[in-house]
Amino acid sequence: MTSKRWVMRTRVLGVVVALCMTVAMTACENTDDAGGSAPTVAPEFVLSGTKRAARATPLPTTDHFTKAATPTASDMTVESPAETPTLPPTPDAGATAMAAANDLAKSKITPVAQPVIYEVPIYGGGNGKLSPGWSVTQSWKLDYNLEAPGRSISGSKALSMIATDDYGSLFFVNLPNSGHEYSRTHIVGLRMFLNAGEGTITPGNLAFTILGSNVFTYYVRGDNSVPTTTQMYFTESRLDELGQMRPLPPNTWVELDIDLNQLLYDPDYKYLTSFYIKTDIGFRQKVYIDNISLIMIK
């Protein structure tokens, strides 16, 4: 009896073991090969008992950016490649330049006349002569020589002057019978060359003044046709005020250009009639002058 019961128990135990092995094998079939939890799939792929075959027609794949079904190759229309446009040929550079030149010639542009600047001599040329119509006979408080030898910049003679008193002045005037008029609108400035002789000229030793008139084309003593609110009609400008900042060394010619537009305190006037070179207090040195001219424009 005991033997039969042991046999029955053994059989039951075998059945239980077999059932456990079956369950374990089934669980292994439903587990992902890579391990971990099984992925979530669409309902049509849910296993029911045994694994069912997939549907013959696959679902369309999904574009995760547009959420729209991605079309298959059969649904797509292949566009023909666009034709490359034909560009016109690049024009020749020489031909373009020639065409531009022809267009310019056809436009018939009238060139604008450029101003002409020239000099009108008053004294110089190395011959010790004043130009016709000019005089220095009305100078005061100095001695002068129109034909001083040995110092000319352009010849053999120059003009020399030496003051005999304070404020001695060499006075150049356009004479009434000169036949020349010098319109202020046509005058740019005055040019001359200075030589200090045996000494040195400092910027304060000499001054220059230009005189004009609104009525007369020549110098007239006492002419008051130019209105002014100051005691003097025209300013006296020292060398440093005319741009000559350094002393003039001995025996050296130095060019001095007087720009009339830079004489800020001079009044407006129609005609230039005269000018003078004035010495300072105590200055008694002999000075040489050459090649004096008006700078004109037309």
Share in helix? 10-25%
Sketch the major β-sheet.
Answer: 7 strands, antiparallel
CATH class of the domain at 117-297: Mainly Beta
Please give the alpha-carbon distance between the first and last residues.
157 Å
CATH fold-type name of the domain at 117-297: Jelly Rolls
Strand content: 25-35%
Number of strands: 12
Instruction: Enumerate how many helices there are, as a single number.
Output: 2
Q: If you average the pLDDT, what whole number results? A: 77
Q: What is the element string, with H for helices and E for strands? A: HHEEEEEEEEEEEE
CATH 2nd-level architecture of the domain at 117-297: Sandwich
Q: Which radius of gyration do the C-alpha atoms yield? A: 57 Å
Shape descriptor reads globular
Low-confidence stretches: 22-79
* Assigned CATH superfamily of the domain at 117-297: Galactose-binding lectin
Pairing-aware structural class of the strands and helices? alpha+beta
Structural descriptors:
298 residues, five-stranded antiparallel beta sheet
